[in-house]
Write a structure and sequence with these properties.
alpha+beta, 3-stranded antiparallel β-sheet, disordered N terminus, binds L-tyrosinamide
Length: about 110
């Protein structure tokens, strides 16, 4: 600081464009995994799927199954893209293996 109260020009003062860098921590987009109702898949099978693929308790799985049965669609969970994709594939593979028409889809949240 000079006697006149102004900054001394010591040559270190920066001039030009000030770029404020913001750390880019992009969080992954989330996807809802949904089960769709149908008339043929046994309720027990849906409950087992919810327990095995979505790690639900028997009580939670039963509640979700009834919700889907009554409302036509219901959420099994919300996951990053690749996790959601893997779960949809596991459900669809199990349904196909057991010849049930159960449908599972994912949608961006
Ligand atoms: N609606 C089926 C039945 O009455 C049960 C069911 C529930 C099927 C949920 C699919 O995602 C589903 N057997």
């Amino acid at each position: 600081m000079g006697a006149d109260g102004h900054e001394d020009d010591d040559g270190e003062g920066q001039t030009g464009v000030v770029t404020k860098t913001r750390p880019k921590t992009k969080r992954p987009s989330l996807y809802r995994v949904l089960l769709l109702n149908d008339d043929y898949t046994p309720m027990e099978f849906v409950i087992l799927i919810l327990m095995e693929v979505f790690n639900k308790s028997q009580d939670d799985a039963t509640q979700i199954m009834w919700h889907v049965h009554n409302q036509g669609v219901g959420e099994c969970g919300v996951f990053p893209y690749e996790v959601a994709e893997t779960k949809v594939t596991r459900v669809m593979d199990a349904a196909r293996r057991n010849q049930h028409p159960l449908q599972c889809v994912m949608e961006k949240q």
